[in-house]
Amino acid sequence: MYNDLFTIGNFTIHGYGLMIAIGIVAAYAVAELRARKKGLEDKYIFPLLVWGVVIGFVCAKILYYITILDEIRSDPRIMLNIFDGFVVYGGIIGGIAAGYCFCRIKKINFWEYLDLVVPSIALAQGFGRIGCFLAGCCYGVATDGPLAITFTDSQFAPNGVALVPTQLYSSAFDFLNFAVLCLLSRKNKVSGRISALYLIIYSVGRFIIEFFRGDLIRGQVGALSTSQFIAIFVILFAVALFWKRSHDYKKAEI
User: Fold this and answer.
1) How far apart are CA 240 and CA 155, in angstroms?
2) pTM score, two decimals?
3) How does pLDDT run across 115-124, given as a tens digit for each residue?
């Protein structure tokens, strides 16, 4: 809603970028703290963060380009705007893939470190969605409900129209996901299950919230949005992963 927070000379602090930065710093700080508590080597957290963030952003951008291929064919210059337009699922998939490669190179347990960082991913997403709210992107459908929000100077959302504040709903859900994962991880003994739960919880919440999103530019697959379509397969994969990790753990105990 107020993306341009303040300006110093020719330098403007944008709410979206600031929230992304806060989310990354908070994610790193929490992951490092939890690594120490769990007896994992915290020296790997920063490079793991860098790998995940860089590759995650690239993949989020690539998936966004895929959803707007028709527009790109009409005007290839759209691809030059690298700071607007991302698909979160691309970031999640790319970030996890980058983490896997990093752990293989460093010869450390991938599932232990993934379980460590997924709560931080949810935390960063919570701040990121606040950034979306400030910028006006990822907006909801028109509504006459009491919790509606009306943008007056947004480059993304329709101005002067009461909308469902999907950004704030997503942010609250991400923060809740973070809290639940941190709580469950305290007693979890099976590596990989916290990661599976993150994917399940996030995807279920994303699937529901998508019904209230109004930015249809993100593309559709039949009656579902692109993200809802992806969410179905992510949930199925995550449920299978949870079962497999639990099954392997029980089998190893026998």
Assistant:
1) 41
2) 0.90
3) 999 999 999 9
